[in-house]
Design brief:
Length: 154
């Protein structure tokens, strides 16, 4: 196992009334082989235009973008959406393409790292990222369309 790994724990929260997806990312260093190190950063963002149900994948994509921008080369991405992260891990290991445009972007970006692992975090241990995601929904000024609820699907 690589000596220096950054762990990024992600979560997403969607507000049907405002059509805003909040994402939360906790960036953590690693100390030694098994020990988690200090939390380096808490990130909360709000995004419009993210399809309902795609929030967790989008949060993971943003975490990869942030890790790349910070110059991280060895990362562990943790999510409480176990089916999604297993699917991504399998596709990444088998060098398959994604099933949709966002998944393709995630897998393409994941291949740019020296080492990456898609790990699971139980919901009960994902409270910080979850709180950041919920708070992130309110970090953007709402447009009239969002306030009117016109982003709802028929």
């Amino acid at each position: 196992m690589p000596q220096w790994i950054h762990t990024l724990t992600v979560d997403a929260s969607y507000d049907e009334v405002t059509c805003v997806t909040g994402i939360g990312i906790v960036v953590q260093a690693r100390v030694g082989v098994t020990g988690r190190g200090p939390i380096l950063e808490h990130i909360a963002e709000a995004h419009t235009g993210v399809a309902p149900g795609a929030g967790e994948m989008f949060a993971l994509f943003r975490a990869l973008e942030i890790a790349k921008a910070r110059g991280f080369t060895r990362i562990k991405i943790r999510s409480d959406y176990n089916a999604m992260r297993r699917h991504l891990r399998e596709h990444h290991r088998m060098r398959r393409t994604g099933d949709n445009a966002l998944e393709c972007k995630v897998l393409d970006l994941a291949r740019e790292f020296v080492w990456i692992d898609f790990g699971y975090v139980p919901r009960r241990k994902n409270q910080t990222a979850h709180a950041l995601a919920r708070n992130g929904r309110f970090a953007v000024q709402l447009t009239k369309a969002a306030r009117d609820g016109s982003c709802r699907r028929a």
